[in-house]
Amino acid sequence: MNLSREWLNEFVPVTASDREFAEAMTLSGSKVEGTTDLGAEISNVVVGKILSMERHPNSDHMWVCQIDVGDSEPVQIVTGAWNIHVGDLIPVAKDNSWLPGGVHITRGNLRGVKSKGMLCSLKELNLDERDFPYGVITAAALLNDYHPIDPEKPSIPADVQPGHKIYGPVVAAGVEAVESAGEGRWTCTLTYPEKTAAVVTPCQNIHEGDLVAYNTKTGAICTLSDLHAEQREFPHCIPDGIFVLQEEGVQPGDDIKPVINADDHVVEFEITPNRPDCLSVIGLAREAAATFNAPLTLHAPVVKGGADGVLAELLDVETPAADLVPRYTARMVRNVKIAPSPKWMRQRLRAMGVRPINNIVDITNYVMLEYGQPMHAFDYRYVRGGKIIVRRAEEGEELTTLDGNVRKLTANHLVIADETRAVGLAGIMGGMNSEIVADTADVVFESACFDGTCIRKGALALGMRTEASAKFEKGLDPLNTLPAVNRACELVELLGAGEVVDGVIDILNYVPQPTVLTLEPDKINALLGTDVPADEMVRILQKLDFQVDGDQVTVPSWRGDVKRMADLAEEVARFHGYNNIPTTLMRGQTTVGGYSPKERLERRLGQAVRAMGFDQIITYSFISPTYYDKIRWSPDDPRRQSFKILNPLGEDTSIMRTTTLPSMLEILTRNYNYRNKSARLYEVGRVYLPGGPDGLAVENKYLTLGAYGDKMDFFALKGAVEAVLRDLRCGGVRFTAVKDDPSYHPGRCAAVWAGEKRLGVLGQLHPLVCGNYGVDAPLFAAELSLEALMDAQGADPEYVPLPKFPDVARDIAVVCDLAVTVGELERCIIQNAKGLLKEVALFDIYTGSSIPDGKKSVAFSLTLRADDRSLTGEEADEDVKAILAALEKELGAVLR
Amino acid sequence: MKEQLAKIRAEALAALGGVKDSAALEELRVRYLGKKGELTAVLKQMGKLSAQERPTMGALANEVRAAVESAVDSAAKKLEERALELRLQAETVDVTIPGKAPRLGHRHPMDMALDEIKDIFVGMGFTVLDGPEIELASYNFDKLNAEEGHPSRDWSDTFYFDADSRVMLRSQTSPMQVRAMETMDLPIRIIAPGRVYRKDEVDATHSPMFHQVEGMVIDHGVTMADLKGTLNLLVEQLYGAGTKTRFRPHHFPFTEPSCEMDVQCHKCGGAGCPTCKGEGWIELLGAGMIHPKVLEMSGIDPNEWSGWAFGIGLERTAMRRFKIADLRLIFENDVRFLEQF
Fold this sequence. Notes:
Chain A is an alpha+beta fold. Helices cover about 25% and strands about 30% of the residues of chain A. The mean pLDDT of chain B is about 90.
């Protein structure tokens, strides 16, 4: 919402600087996003008066002007524009001046003639004809500006003289004199042999000595189109030139900014959706009055009326969809004269970011900005049968809206219709078929209140959120429609734009029920932690137009957001000042805070893997369905059952992952592509599996490790997993080979277990998976379920007495089949030890010259110890002998 | 004999004074003090002495022996010291050669910021809660007083899993307020950090997935002043003591009164600069007193209990905390970025 401070000042005098104003309004709840000084880019541009004009000695199209800019001496400025005359008031950018767009104007030299500045066009001041309709420039085709397309075959001879016939009744005529005829028109005295004529023309580019084409039959000076000529034949016959001012009371030397309203400052507010009343000048004026404790002066519209006709006979309104139309108010204006609206209105509209169009349309926009009530104006002649019906659209009904688009409607749309067809999309946009046009004579002003949800959904379905629909969707005050329509009619009379028919059509489909609350200052203070006196609360509420009678507070109709004590507390807090509320710490019962066991597990895992050099990453929870292809899950893999977002941003973020693996691989790949030599990464992240309560997901967390480079291999990764499990004191940890996980290398993948509980999987990624990611180095990953780790965590440690007696160490090397795993050998050793064995450690695996083909030598270091005596070598050897016997018997592993 | 002893003493002391290594020392020790040494040889002659001479000579011989022994000891000590000195010299390293550090892993900056926030609140007796990201619209919206028709419910803003807009990706951590109210005993003090999702295209300040931390207190007599006090404490812990804050009215469906808290711009100290868009303040979080209707919907009597809640965006907090300029870095996970934290 933009607010012109000039307009605001009509209702409440606030002189605060922009910064003070922004800060104070922000702190009272109307957040200011920024302030624009409309004239910030313009400096040292003044009104000038042209004292004399001479043709440039070295140019066929430039003029040398002497200009009074209010200084003691006139300044000389060279211009290429042809639409100016001696006596004109024009904007002059003086030497060392600035124009919009950062244009810097300095003195210069144009073809040997000094020029101390520049005369400005509308465009150069960042304006257009809509701001100053009189600034439209009409140009005559000057014969002395004629440049034939084909120099060999000119349509007009180069030596054309006054009296030469151009075609039919059109002759060449010399200009003897040019005098102002007022209102931007000029009287030209023309001569052609033996004849003279005084012609009044709107063409501004004619000067003494020019040669024009004069139509002796119509008495008009010809323009380009009259001559059926092309622009390039008359290069200076253009609707462009200097902005000649027609403002009253303007003097040479005046600053141009107030003249073109560039002295206004526009404040941009972010209005929260609970305050649609603040989407208006009056709403913000009320807030400003309360903020600055300044008087608010509102005005009740007065309409004279008296136009011919009886409203009830001219117009009938029906609202069959009464539930969607709480109120429909309309008035009629006759004998409308469509014209530009006055400067003050155009300037205010423009300051607020609305393009001026014509007086009737401008009035509707003006009232919408001032009252926050969207208005619509129809051309009465297109309301067939003089009947307006506000109804649901027919399924498939079509309407061409004002923006020229054909809209296909459904029964959820509300339309304004006559007896035969829709003429407008209620609350969103009018119809092309009833648009206000240049010859509109009778106008219906609609000021209605529509159901917010219906308008919001309707606009959303058509993808056309308009200024009006944005207001309606928030729920407007039904009591505002009547003052708004009266204000529109008042403005029609003020602008002389038409005659207002007496009476108002006002259909009320709702029962106004003002909210009455009990003011409980103690409760308000208890909620805020303040000590605001009751009479201060009353003062604040009254300033906001709440009616206070004893402890009864009547909420104004436009404050639908105020429904209970807490809402009143907010009003009090806003104007007491949030920053005047004390700051205290909580009292009351002490609570034991802390982390849940799950969270403690997460923190512990993070610490453990960081100690091993893994960096934490955070990845998106949503992935592309193609990611399952990249990790080689078969098309019918049940794990592909994912939560699917129906309105995703894109395919890449369209389903909720059921595995964290592809997210990790994406990040490994990215780092690999960034040529980072190695990476060790981890994420504690969720997967989202179907089957949770209430149709929600089962959101399980996984610790995912990923790595490449820096001596990473299967055993380095496995070691990291082992270290994590040791840190958690998991018991019964074992690893089994996994050959059928499609994502992993079939010979380098293991499942990790704690007893019978599967904790997860780890390994080297399948080369085809690496290929899918475009990585030509081995990638490694581990996926461990936090739920499983939670269960597998061991109890707190219990102290075991340190050994009192020495160890006996025995190394054994056995030769066995290649297929026998180290795990099997270890298990066999442990199972067959007789209670003295404390530790088994693999220290060598060897295949080579002294070992037969298909065999390998595996060496273990055994540590034996008795807890109650010093072990003798013989005792130890006996144990080892038993172990060796078992190894041979069970696994065919013989001592080397 | 007396002369012999004097000579041995003089020779031995002189020789020991100039000894160069332990082998030479041992040779001298054997030569003078050994069983076949010179002193022993002299003592062997003691028998030949008269009874009168013997005690005097004995004493003298012992004195010489002690003197030589002491000289041997001190020479040995000197040699040891010298040897140690040489060894230490030989073992000297260039201490400026880099150490052999094991590479420690790094914590993600956002997790660091989150941990700071958690620490602050756990210290004040808050429990850290976790909850579902795939959430019911009734928890994300209805029970938080964002009725049907609230703009944030639009499909253009929120991700949905079914055509009835029933199951969605939570757009805020606030549904955890409702889950806490429904499951926990009063009084309640919780924070609930987690991922949230909104339909924003990725750019330097937006991401369709980001993180929030929700905080909530419900107790007898909880006031807005308490909310301010607690949030000021949070800011001082995050950004240093004396960090200035301001509170502005705002609107959230589930709090009344509602506010936003700004922190004074760290760049300009409040004078206004491009970082704070000239305002002197930077928005940090939204908060408010829990709307009585929200309490009622979760079965808590607003006449008896009151509470406050806040929600803070974690990415922004981390970005400000570590001066990270672009949000995309957070989710890019480039090792060169991660290693900086």
